Amino acid sequence: MTLPTSTQNQSLIIGLKQRREKLAKLINYPVILWSGSPARRNFSANKLPFRASSHFLYFAGIPLTNAVIRLQGGKLELFLDNPPPEATLWHGTTPTREEIGAIIGANQVYPLAELSGKTAGAATIAVQDLATYQQQSQLLNRPISLSHQTTSIDLELAQALVKLRSHHDDLALAELRQAAAVSVAAHKAGMQATKNATTEAEIRGAMEGVIIAHNMTCAYNSIVTVQGEVLHNESYHHQLHPGDLLLADVGAETPNGWAADITRTWAVSGKFSPSQKAIYEIILQAHDDCIAKVKPGVEYQDLHLLAAEIIAAGLADLGILEGNPQDLVAMDAHALFFPHGVGHLLGLDVHDMEDLGDVAGYTAGRSRSDRFGLGYLRLNRPLESGMLVTIEPGFYQVPAILNDPNFRAKYQNVINWERLAEFKDVRGIRIEDDVLVTDSGAEVLTASLPTKIEELVVMSNE
Amino acid sequence: MTLPTSTQNQSLIIGLKQRREKLAKLINYPVILWSGSPARRNFSANKLPFRASSHFLYFAGIPLTNAVIRLQGGKLELFLDNPPPEATLWHGTTPTREEIGAIIGANQVYPLAELSGKTAGAATIAVQDLATYQQQSQLLNRPISLSHQTTSIDLELAQALVKLRSHHDDLALAELRQAAAVSVAAHKAGMQATKNATTEAEIRGAMEGVIIAHNMTCAYNSIVTVQGEVLHNESYHHQLHPGDLLLADVGAETPNGWAADITRTWAVSGKFSPSQKAIYEIILQAHDDCIAKVKPGVEYQDLHLLAAEIIAAGLADLGILEGNPQDLVAMDAHALFFPHGVGHLLGLDVHDMEDLGDVAGYTAGRSRSDRFGLGYLRLNRPLESGMLVTIEPGFYQVPAILNDPNFRAKYQNVINWERLAEFKDVRGIRIEDDVLVTDSGAEVLTASLPTKIEELVVMSNE
After folding, report:
1. Beta carbons of B156 and B335 less than 8 angstroms apart
2. Contact B128 A44 (CB under 8 A)
């Protein structure tokens, strides 16, 4: 664990205390949150990379393992066992429970065994790892619903957490800016590595190498692919060919758990073909126009629909779609090529608070649409100052969609298949940035990474 | 998943069949092995990196997820669910159960639900993830002991697995050589990155970047540290200073799960100080002499004791220890500076089959010594042709040992503390290679990575 320096530490203590006090205004019963514990890589001494649970991290501030915090009335109690004395041989001197308590401003510290006497009436959120989940249930002495199905006081807690975590405080913003800056550097390294790379994996190595070099981890499994139409592609073995576009969706996470999420699409050869350029410009316009509209009060779904309309209009201009843009969007024709939502909340999680189902993403009373062109939208709330969202329009030729007989029948009069065939070297394009909603509009945390074709071309030829 | 090409595929099918046939000669009841399933990174769509269980991988050959195999009489039945149709949108076309069955030479394939009718009388080995472990118990309808505490038919299976997995076949060796080659490249990149690096993390980024660029993963959490005396150091935030030694213990794992494990120690400035050079040469001699002795029939513990004696002799020559080397080793004085074993088995796991406790590492009837200088030895068997072991002597100034009042009292007459103080810039040195036992002696799979100071100096100044 990297311990904070003393100035950082004062900000951490103050920031965490403010979070607890805000929570105490919303919840008057105790809240107990578990960090979780690392999974094993086939034998117990070989641990898989560990990520503490996000709700825990929000109040504990630093990535503790096998730790529990109890919050009540603005106070923090930390439950953590000291490492056994023989651990110093293998792991060196590690801070004691008391030292860690001091770092995060705990009001009391206890060994884990003392937790069992202090769980009455407490709310919690289920963590993802089963071993810890079973402990939660046992220690609270009641069944705990999964985190996307919370009920009663756990649901109230979930709603309170959403209120807090939706608006990033200074502590969070400092971390999010770091994650964004390192992710920008990783993408630049990926572009610069392209000229001499022969496989997707080599680009990925260059990008993730930068993240590791900054002592960060990836916030999610990277997508680095010449098959951009596979939306969650996680294979990296394809050869790069001169006519390919490379889509890279890679984001760093700070040691304390805060994420960035950036996508860029660039040409393997350094040069976009006319068909690639034509589609790219449409997606870039959707990206830029959505970001220009970001401000408090704007409905995020309206940004999604704006992107959809710009894409439909652009494809109509190119002769790929036929009809007027509003009609095309109303019939979800945009979703043939842009089947996902325009973005999501971003914070400790890359899809922030998605463990709570749609409690964070959807205003109370709203639920997922069953429309093909809206159902994958992860965020449907009016924007508020302090929210961080991604804006990530895209264009994809997904065989599972375009070859689907039902879609082909439904949209037979609005797609020009012959014209579309002239764009077959555009498999997938996405442009994604991290946008902070501010009182005065928007601040793009990832703005230092180019989006314009001319600049991408320069960078990938450097 | 990267699918094998057709030539690779024939070798895979033949190699896996041979493994099953060998197993059938040792075990006449069914064997059921689970791959396990990925853990989640705080919400269900964000998966942590997954590693299938090693015993499963040995017979399934490729890294399947949520899969089960049943082996009996040399036959393989694969139980695996096809992805739901909507998965093609997000994940593209993935091979069907039948296609995967063909790739690995399965005799039959079934959906997972059919497993429950085919579990009678089967042996298994518990996997590490609790969710899968609970399924194992439920489906076999009996309690399953943890993998290091197997009993009855599960213990017999463990012993059979050790017989097979201790001797690497051609399929395994092809993978192990790839892992070794990429790990060598990673270490070279680390050395070359040193001149311009300012933190441990930057060296790590350069090294792991190479592993990722080859579409491999790290076989274990890398150690890249200027505090080499912390044996399992997993922090990377320290600044590099010109007088520091950098210890890097980094190994790649192939996509099918086979590991390498290499340690090198080099000078941050490119130049070893006289004190660093003096100790390094002792460790290198222990390393070289142990490797020279590797051949079938040699007791691995004798190699450990040989390393201990060379280190004791070298430290006596330098005036750090006082006494004759045999006596020093007999009283475990070497372990003050070399507290771990000289190495371990290597294969699918970096400590191969350590999930089975000491069943693989210790010949039946042998158990861990309670001697300080032997108790951490992970391997105590006569070497046999086809075994892959690490040879990794080291020297460390571990405060938890050297400041321990009991040790200081016990060894007061054999340590010259004033002389030792002249070596305070030698915090930790380890030199580790992967050595295959062959009929004619030894083949060092990692031999292309330099160990000699002159060569390390050249490489870290390139």
Report:
1. no
2. yes
Query: What ipTM did this prediction achieve?
Result: 0.96
A186 vs A392: CA distance, rounded Å: 18
Instruction: Report whether A287 contacts A434 (CB < 8 A).
Output: no
Q: pLDDT tens digit string along A256-284? A: 999 999 999 999 999 999 999 999 999 99
Residues of A in contact with B41 (CB under 8 A): 51, 128, 220
Whether B282 and B211 map to the same domain: the answer is yes
Instruction: Classify residue A1: in a domain, yes or no.
Output: no
Distance of CA A181 to the CA centre of its chain: 15
Q: Please answer whether residues A348 and A173 qualify as being in contact, where contact means their C-beta atoms are separated by less than 8 angstroms.
A: no
* B352 in contact with chain A, both atoms CB, cutoff 8 A: no
- Is residue B1 situated within a structural domain? no
Q: How many structural domains is chain B composed of?
A: 2
pTM, full prediction: 0.97
A199: chain B residues, CB-CB within 8 Å: 213, 215
Note whether A317 and A201 are same-domain residues: yes
Contact B279, B426 (CB under 8 A): yes
Question: Among candidates A283, A278, A284, A287, which has minimal Cα distance to A317?
Answer: A278
Range of the domain at A278: 170-460
Last residue of a domain, one of B136, B165, B194: B165
Q: Looking at the complex, does the CB of residue B42 fall below 8 Å from at least one CB of chain A? A: yes
**What's the CA gap between B395 and B391, in Å, rounded?**
14
Tens of pLDDT, residues A208-259: 999 999 999 999 999 999 999 998 888 999 999 999 999 999 999 999 999 9
